[in-house]
Each structure stands twice: as C-alpha cells, then as structure tokens.
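This section describes the prediction task in plain terms. A model, or a person checking by hand, is given the sequence of a single protein chain and must write out its three-dimensional structure as a string of tokens. No templates, partner chains or ligands are provided. The sample shown here is typical of the held-out split.
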Amino acid sequence: MSLQQLFGWGTLRLALAGIIGAHGWHRALTGGVEPFGQWLDNQGWPMGVLIAVAITAFEIIGTLFLALNRYVPLVCLGYVGVYATGIAILHAKVGWFVVGPGRNGAEFSALLILVLLSVAVHHWPSRRA
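The expected answer:
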C-alpha cells in the first residue's frame, strides 16, 4: 500500500474514532446515559439503561481499538449495527435531514454507516493462496 493510501485510510479511521468517541464520552460525562436508557425503555426495549450503558461503553472502548488499528472490521460492523438500529427506531421516522429542513434525521447515521463499511472492507483480512 502506498504512503498516500496509508495516510488516507489512517486519517479516515482516526476521524471515525474521534467522532464516535466524542459521542460516547459526551453522553457518559454529561449524564446522558440514564435518559438514553429511559428513552429506550419507553420505546419498549427491555433493559434500556443496560443497553444505553453498553452502547456508550462500546462507543468509548471500540474507538480505542479503531485508533490502535486493532479488530477494525469487527468494531466497524458493531457500529454499523448500532447506527442502523438508530435509523430504524428513531431517525427514519423523522426524515432525512439532521439540521436545516429537518431535525434528528438519518443522513449523518447513513454517512457513518457507509464510511464504517468502507473502512471495514478495507481492513478485512484477505485470503492468500
């Protein structure tokens, strides 16, 4: 792989780690885990607070693995599952746009999913004959 490719994919992977990590850390440090869990409970999810704790922990710990270039495909696919679920239970119901003509829409989550899938495929182990 060329230096340009290493820089490009590495920058993208680190950007994902920073963005997703900031999301988890913000929720953890500002008391957002409990309200998130209660919202999940109100949506009919069992053990909503436990799910919120697990998602928040994954957003924090998983990003360390991304930053360290470890288990990248697995971590990315885990995040795809989290954000696809978010689209299904919240974002798709309120529209496409996050801001501007809408609020809380699916566009940012959809972009994250596409980037996560791209990074996962790029880091997927290849079989060598």
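For orientation: The two ends are 19 Å apart (CA to CA).
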